[in-house]
Amino acid sequence: MRTGISDATMNYLFPDGTGVPCATGAELLQTFIARRPDDLGFLEPGDINSLSGSGFAGIPEWDEFVHHYSVCERCHE
């Protein structure tokens, strides 16, 4: 899957390939990264696992990703 997110970033955020977002989710995550590149350094795999408790809550691009990732049946496959 080519998402615009580097392989290194995807491997870091989704160790062992678990919980990977679908194409739409990856696009939303890419939008967050593109619009807030300085925040990427603070993004941890745990932020993906505990979406509601993330320090990024309230950032529109993150909230859009979280909403999609939380309800999408294709994400997490």
How would you describe the overall organization of this protein?
This protein is an all-alpha fold and 77 residues long. 48% of the residues lie in helices and 0% in strands. Helix 2 runs antiparallel to helix 4 (60-71).
Q: What class do helices, strands and sheet pairing give?
A: mainly alpha
Described by strand count, sense and barrel closure, the largest sheet is: none
Which shape, going by the Cα principal axes?
A: globular
Q: Give the mean pLDDT.
A: 84
Distance between the termini: 13 Å
Radius of gyration: 11 Å
- The number of E-state strands comes to 0
Percent range for β-strand residues: under 5%
Q: Note the total helix count.
A: 4
Contiguous low-pLDDT stretches (5 residues minimum) are none
Secondary-structure element order, N to C: HHHH
Task: Determine the fraction of residues in helical runs and give it as a percent range.
Answer: 40-55%
